[in-house]
Amino acid sequence: MTPAITLEELLVWNCQSSEFWKAHLEANPALLALPCGIGGNADLQAFVRHIWGAELVWSQIIGDQPVTDYDVWPTGPLDALFDLHLSAVRNFRALLDNPNANWDECSVHYPWRRPEAPKPTPRKALAHILLHSQRHWAQLSTLVRSAGFPSGFLGDLLPSSALA
Amino acid sequence: MTPAITLEELLGWNQQSSVFWKAWLDANPAALALPCDIDRTTNVQEFVRHIWAVDLVWARRIAGLPELDRGKVPAGPLDLLFDLHLQAVKVFRSMLDDPAFPWEETLTMEFKWMPPEGRVASRRKAMAHALFHGPRHWAQLATLARTGGSPTGFLGDLLFSSALA
User: Fold this and answer.
1) Which helix (H) or strand (E) holds A27?
2) Which residues in A lie closer than 8 A to residue B110 (C-beta atoms)?
3) CATH topology classification for A31-146
4) Across the interface, which of A2, A126, A157 has its CB nearest the CB of B132?
5) With contact defined as beta carbons under 8 Å apart, do A78 and A45 qualify?
6) Average pLDDT of A51-58?
7) pTM
8) CB contact, 8 Å: A160 with chain B?
9) Does A161 lie at the interface with B, CB-CB under 8 angstroms?
10) What CATH topology corresponds to B7-152?
């Protein structure tokens, strides 16, 4: 057996992290106004929008659906941003539930791909976006702690129940 | 087929990130003195020490080797810290190359910070955890370096890694 982590497991971990931050930001809404320079975002709300909006865009790209334009994403409130994540999760699940999906074909075209960059497989693209969020949540956790508001976020895979 | 990312691929991504940061810090040694308080460190050098020491701690733990004596982990210089990572990679590779390695066998941890239900993990989960630990911290370090006035150009996302197609 080749040891591996399934995309299903990565999706569950991803959902757990998003649910943590949704709950934490609902309980601490002032955090959404914290300044944030990551990814060119002015504040934490814009950064969260980037995280969840990117999930939706990638779910559409991998699923070969029309891509929701960045300008159309809601800028808030938090519930509307979280809906971006929920919509993405529905798309991810549909992909994972498709028994005919060809996970290993280098077929994924994303509009900002440089000509010299190879097309990723759907497997890589889905793993990428599921981990993209995890890397950003780690940055966000540091950002809120540095501002004096530690979140208690346990972002590592180890505490997650996504896999045994 | 259940789509999955192999631990071999994750190890490749983990290594590429470490190699990037080793080269960048070699070229920008002043960045090692930048203040940093992530995981109770005081500067970037200590933070990097944490990342690579944890690689080795977990590699040894998963392989069933004696626990790393953290008191003997060097404080620097960078080459010695990177050697912790290189040692970890050797141990990780030895496990991946062992066709009989018991990936689903569990480890029990006694971490007080961990919720009790998270203290038992398969070796597969523990290694995935160890291999994600570095990339999550490198993302934090990229932000820290940028806000400290030293943008790195680090492309830490898996999308940019050649570890998998």
Assistant:
1) helix A7-27
2) none
3) Four Helix Bundle (Hemerythrin (Met), subunit A) (1.20.120)
4) A157
5) yes
6) 98
7) 0.97
8) yes
9) yes
10) Four Helix Bundle (Hemerythrin (Met), subunit A) (1.20.120)
Q: Work out the average pLDDT over A33-57.
A: 96
Phi, psi (degrees; rounded to nearest 5) at B106: -95, 155
The CA-to-CA distance between both ends of chain A, in Å, stands at 17
pLDDT at residue B118, as a whole number: 83
Partner-chain residue, chosen from A38, A156, A158, that has the shortest CB–CB distance to B143: A38
Q: Do B24 and B152 touch, CB atoms closer than 8 A?
A: yes
pLDDT at B50 over 90: yes
For B79, phi then psi, to 5°, come to: -60, -40
Torsion on CA atoms A79, B144, B140, A72, rounded to nearest 10: 30
Distance from CA of A163 to the nearest CA of B (A): 7
The H-or-E segment that residue B57 falls in is helix B44-63
DSSP string, A60-111: HHHTT-PPPPGGGS----HHHHHHHHHHHHHHHHHHHH-TT--TTSS----T
Q: What is the pLDDT of residues B77-132, one digit of tens each?
A: 999 999 999 999 999 999 999 999 999 999 999 888 888 878 999 999 999 999 99
Q: Which of residues 74-113 of B touch A (CB under 8 A)?
A: 96, 101, 103, 106, 109, 113
Q: Where are the domains of chain B?
A: 7-152
Q: Predicted ipTM?
A: 0.96
